[in-house]
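Dear colleague,

Thank you for sharing your sequence with our group. We've completed the structure prediction you requested, and as agreed, I am returning the results in plain text so they can be pasted directly into your records. Please verify that the sequence below matches your submission; if there's any discrepancy, let me know and we will rerun it promptly.
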Amino acid sequence: TKAAYEKEVKPELDEFSKLLTELPLSDQDKATLGNFTFQCVQKYGVNYVDAWHKYFRSFGIQADSLGALKIIFTQMQLPASVFAEFLNTIKENTFLEELPSSYLIPIHQQLANFQFINRLTVTEKDKLSELDKYKAILQQIQNELEPDLGLGKKPEKKPEDAAEALPKEFIELLPPIAKIAYPIFLESKDSYLKITHNWLASAGILNQWQKPFITPIHQLYEMGLKEMEKVVAKNWAQKLLPPLTPILGKFPFTPEATL
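Please find the predicted structure tokens below.
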């Protein structure tokens, strides 16, 4: 942790830097001792960063129902939540201030991969932070999951091509979560999966760091896809199959028929 680093590592390296110049050793011996210490710090830095990589990968989101997913979306937007604590813990332990000793450089270099965490909460005047932009995406999704509240209506727009033209009759049959999943299924440019990927790119979050942010969208899609399948199966059984059954019964060929 950062506390252990500042208590046990940083002071010792600061003291070593001063002590090395005063030791009654030859320049060659001083260089050898300095290089050995530098290599030890490099190894410490690798282990320190690896520990926080594991912590980052340990964060998981798993919803077994739509209700649970809604709760997750709500909690991820709160200033005090498991998600916020997770990000703050990483930020606090991977942002090490100042470099009084050249022997600390390897640690700071190893921690460069975590800089995106610090950027998430940086705000400029009259602008949202990157994390606030992500929360806004979650808020819009949550609004569309609760259409009765009248908060989740997107402005209608003309589709750019036929693949993105959503059949009105089909869409009206879908529950809210399936309506959100359908554009993702079509790989539409305005789907929430695409919007989230665009945000990840603009925030400079590389693939290995995207899981905590993209997982809620993937789970939303999986649930919505199941609801779509239910609607299709129900309408096939109730609307399409009945009128087809008499026709199929009159089909003039047998399965064994050949030309």
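Summary note from our side: The mean pLDDT is 80.

Kind regards,
the structure core
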